[in-house]
Amino acid sequence: MKITLLAVGKTDDPRIAELTDMYADRLQHYVNFELQLLPDLKNTKNMNEERQKNEEGKNILAQLEKSDFVTLLDQRGKRLSSPQFAELINKRSVSGLKRLVFIIGGPYGFSQDVYDRANSKLSLSDMTFSHQMVRLFATEQIYRAFTILKNEPYHHF
Ligand SMILES: C[S@@+](CC[C@H](N)C(=O)[O-])C[C@H]1O[C@@H](n2cnc3c(N)ncnc32)[C@H](O)[C@@H]1O
User: Fold this and answer.
1) What ipTM was reported for this prediction?
2) How far is the CA of 128 from the centre of ligand 1 (A)?
3) Which of 14, 59, 95, 146 has the greatest number of beta carbons closer than 10 A?
4) Looking at ligand 1, which atom is closest to the CA of residue 105?
5) Does any domain span residue 154?
6) Which residues are annotated as a binding site for S-adenosyl-L-methionine?
7) Gene3D superfamilies, from UniProt (predicted)?
8) CA 144 – CA 141 distance, rounded (Å)
9) pLDDT tens digit string along 128-139?
10) Quick check: 155 pLDDT over 80?
């Protein structure tokens, strides 16, 4: 199974990008992991929130295959402990799934079309984080999940 973390826009802060890349590199030891960054939209100053979400949504949907299992990172999603998250990844992996896709929205979140395509929603907290921070947190949690599944001494219960 491949895991893709799909996000809108480049990471402006090199410190966040560096940490995210560190966990992404470590993940290669366990799984074919890809952090896929979609290009920023142009001329967003002339767009209202809804239009920007819809344009970003079209770009997101264009990246998805029919067979993908799609989980949106969304603060209104389901909350799981790290071991529960690890178990969920394991369940998907043994089900023969080709690709598990996690998606992080843009500054205003997701369009309705993206919500309609999603198979599940996962919350990292009730608080709202910047989309750049979520890249780091999600990558670290996916890495943590694999160390839990392999019984490696990274996660402390
Ligand atoms: C700045 S937030 C967008 C906030 C937007 N107003 C909303 O209600 O979704 C950008 C993206 O970061 C992710 N995000 C932010 N906080 C999160 C959280 N607590 N749990 C999961 N994802 C989160 C989501 O993918 C969101 O679309």
Assistant:
1) 0.97
2) 6
3) 146
4) 27
5) no
6) 73, 105, 124-129
7) 3.40.1280.10
8) 5
9) 999 999 999 999
10) no
